[in-house]
Amino acid sequence: MRLVILALLLPLPAFAGEADVLDAKATRSGGDWRIEATIRHADTGWDHYANGFEVVGPDGTVLGTRTLYHPHVEEQPFTRSHTLTIPADITSVTIRATDSVHGTGGAEVMISLE
């Protein structure tokens, strides 16, 4: 019984889990890359929502970050883009989503830049 009461007292945003990248694609645009990421997260409002995605190089370096400034409670999944310069010697990147409670940690997608 105590566990049931404790579970009811936990803040609801904890149940939303981590943000997942469902799909991503890269398009060359001059010297830059346009990265499109499709993200799913059980946004509950301002307390817990998918708040961005990162473009990560093979060595773990974050090459770019797209910040999302509001919840997407009624728009799931959603796709957003980020344009950035990626060094020519990098041939693949990993896209990972972030949320306002967990940071990173959900499903990631690796895409080729060749």
Mean pLDDT: 85
Assembly form of the protein:
single chain
- Percent strand equals over 45%
Classified in CATH, the superfamily is SOR catalytic domain
- Strand tally is 7
State the order of secondary-structure elements, H for helix, E for strand: HEEEEEEE
Q: List low-confidence stretches.
A: 3-9
At CATH level 2, the architecture is Sandwich
Calculate the terminal CA-CA distance, rounded to whole Å.
57 Å
State the helix count.
1
User: What characteristic shape results from the CA principal axes?
Assistant: elongated
Give the helix level as a range of percent.
under 10%
Strand neighbour order, sheet with most strands: 4-3-6-7
Structure write-up:
- By secondary structure, the chain is mainly beta.
- It has one helix and seven strands, in the order H-E-E-E-E-E-E-E.
- The protein has one helix spanning 2-9, and strands at residues 20-29, 32-40, 50-56, 62-67, 78-84, 92-99, 108-112.
- A hairpin with a 2-residue loop joins strand 1 and strand 2 (32-40).
- The protein starts with a helix and ends with a strand.
- Residues 3-9 have low confidence and may be disordered.
Short account of what is shown:
It contains 1 helix and 7 strands.
Essential attributes:
single chain, 114 residues, mainly beta, Immunoglobulin-like, 4-stranded antiparallel sheet, 3-stranded antiparallel sheet, 1 helix, disordered N terminus
Topology overview:
Elements: H1 2-9, E1 20-29, E2 32-40, E3 50-56, E4 62-67, E5 78-84, E6 92-99, E7 108-112
Antiparallel strand pairs: 1-2, 2-5, 3-4, 3-6, 6-7
